[in-house]
Each structure stands twice: as C-alpha cells, then as structure tokens.
Design goal:
With 299 residues, the protein is an all-alpha fold. It is 55% helix and 1% strand. It is built from 13 helices and 2 strands. The protein has a two-stranded antiparallel sheet. Helix 2 runs antiparallel to helix 3. The longest helix is centred in the N-terminal third of the chain and has 19 residues. 27% of the residues are buried.
C-alpha cells in the first residue's frame, strides 16, 4: 500500500522519503513540490506541527538530493556502517544508560526489537552480559578497531557521567583517521554537527577534518546545513577560510557538487560576505554551472 496524504505511512520516514511521497524513480522538482503540497493541505503546520516538521524534513532531504543529483541509496553503500542491532536510535542521556533497554524507537514512537544476526554476538548481547564500564575498557584497549567499534566507543564514552560535550564527535573523528572511507562515520559526524544548535570555531576544524577524509563532493551535501548554521555563529572571514581549505582538500570535483552547495548557501552568505568573496563565489558558481571541473585555487 502506497503512502498518501489521506493515509500516510509514517514508518517510511526518515529513511524512505521518496516512497513516503509516492514518487517514482526519476522524479523531478515539479513532481516533488506537487507531492509535498498535497501533504501540506492535509497537515497544515498550525494544526499538525509535529507531522508538518516530519513532512518538511522529508521534502528538504529529497530537494537536496535533487540539487546534488543523487539517485543512489547512500545507506546501502558498501562502506556505510550497519547500525542495526547496535544502540538505541537516540543517544542515551549521560549517566542514565539503561543496559536492559536496547530497542530502536520506530518513527511513530513505539519500540521494536533489534534484528540480530544469529551467528554473531552484537554489542547489545555484550551489554546484557557485562557492564558499560567493562565494555568501554575492552573497546579502548582493543588494538585494531573497526569503524563500528569507534561508533560503539563514542556512544559509550558519551553516556558516562561528566563526559565532555565533544567526546562523541572526537571519538568519531578518531575513527575517521583509522577508516577515512567509512561512509557511516561520515554521516554520523555530519548528523552530530547538524543536531547541534550551538557551534563554534572548533566545528570549523571538525569540518576540515571530515573534508580531508572524504575527498568527495558528497561532503557538500552532508554538511551544507552545518555551514549555514555557522554563518550566524562565527566570523565570516574564519568561515570562508575554512570552507576554502575544505574545498582545497577535496580537489577537482564534478561541477554539480559546487552548484548544489552554492545555490543553497549564497543567498544567506551575501549578508555577511564582502564584495570580493561574493564575486569569487559567483565566478565559481558560474564555472560550475557552465564549465568543467576546476580546482578551487583556480577561481
């Protein structure tokens, strides 16, 4: 049964927004907007604020994918972390990690049990057998850690009483040093940054760290909302310098990546940028739109 405004399938969000809107492969912007508007008529923001937020987020996800010409399923990428049967979908509060509760909340707020590989012991199984502290020590002492180990380590460290607010992202960045092509870590780091209402100078350093590891245009798509938030939180000169470093780290890319990013960021940046930066950004945008791939230093 397909999802419709009259009978929405909320379980399709956030991971299957295209199916939620009932869109076929190869949908375009006009079809997306038409589907979005149908749902808005049924779920007006003043009457259904929570539902509207979920619909809006799904729309923005698909609109962003269109701008970046993304058609593949990034979650199915061979380098992505499989987080099923790992931890609760939401981060546990520090000092309140419940070792007996390891179910994933579903999108509608109910709980469903983890799906576990029967032939392999999962982190959930381990937490039923030992304490958080013992498992944390075991992971910290493990010589060769997988990308998934770093995710588990980050969550366990973050759940400890008195843990630093940055311990989760710092641990994930350590994992990125060991596994630079682990797409699951890329997404987790970007999600952690996107989820913060307050960002500072250190966020610029984290973005540069991520860009050096990724070296792909997908960096633009994963982090554009972080750059947007930082425009209002750090001096523009620092923002622009960090962005340039990230672009230099990524090198020559297909032009549509920069196009997708600057279409989103330029209308906001013009209120903070000087005329020189705007001219350079417009030149880069024009080159991306009409020309071939160019290195950032050439603009």
């Amino acid at each position: 049964m397909s999802s419709t405004p009259e009978s929405p399938d909320w379980q399709l969000l956030p991971n299957q927004p295209r199916d939620f809107f009932g869109l076929e492969d190869g949908y375009d912007e006009k079809q997306l907007k038409r589907a979005y508007n149908r749902f808005l008529k049924a779920f007006k923001p003043e009457k259904f604020p929570a539902e509207f937020q979920r619909i809006r987020q799904a729309y923005e996800d698909l609109e962003r994918r269109l701008r970046y010409q993304i058609q593949d399923d990034f979650d199915a990428d061979s380098g992505a972390l499989n987080l099923q049967a790992s931890f609760p979908a939401s981060r546990p509060a520090r000092g309140t990690f419940d070792e007996a509760d390891h179910s994933h909340p579903s999108p509608d707020g109910s709980s469903s049990a983890h799906t576990r590989p029967s032939s392999k012991t999962t982190i959930v199984d381990r937490l039923n057998e030992t304490s958080v502290e013992d498992l944390l020590t075991e992971l910290e002492q493990k010589e060769s850690k997988s990308a998934l180990d770093y995710y588990h380590l980050a969550m366990l460290r973050d759940s400890q009483p008195g843990a630093s607010s940055n311990v989760l992202i710092q641990t994930l960045l350590n994992g990125l040093d060991a596994h630079p092509q682990a797409h699951g870590l890329h997404r987790l780091i970007a999600a952690e940054l996107n989820g913060r209402s307050q960002l500072g100078q250190e966020a610029l350093e984290w973005l540069e760290h991520l860009a050096r590891a990724m070296c792909t245009g997908r960096f633009y798509e994963l982090t554009e909302m972080v750059w947007s938030s930082l425009l209002d939180q750090v001096p523009f000169e620092d923002w622009a310098t960090s962005l340039k470093r990230c672009e230099a780290a990524m090198g020559v890319l297909e032009p549509f990546w920069a196009t997708g990013f600057y279409v989103r960021i330029l209308p906001q940046a013009v209120w903070s940028a000087d005329s020189e930066w705007i001219d350079v950004a417009l030149s880069r945008f024009d080159a991306s739109t009409f020309g071939g791939g160019r290195d950032i230093d050439e603009v």
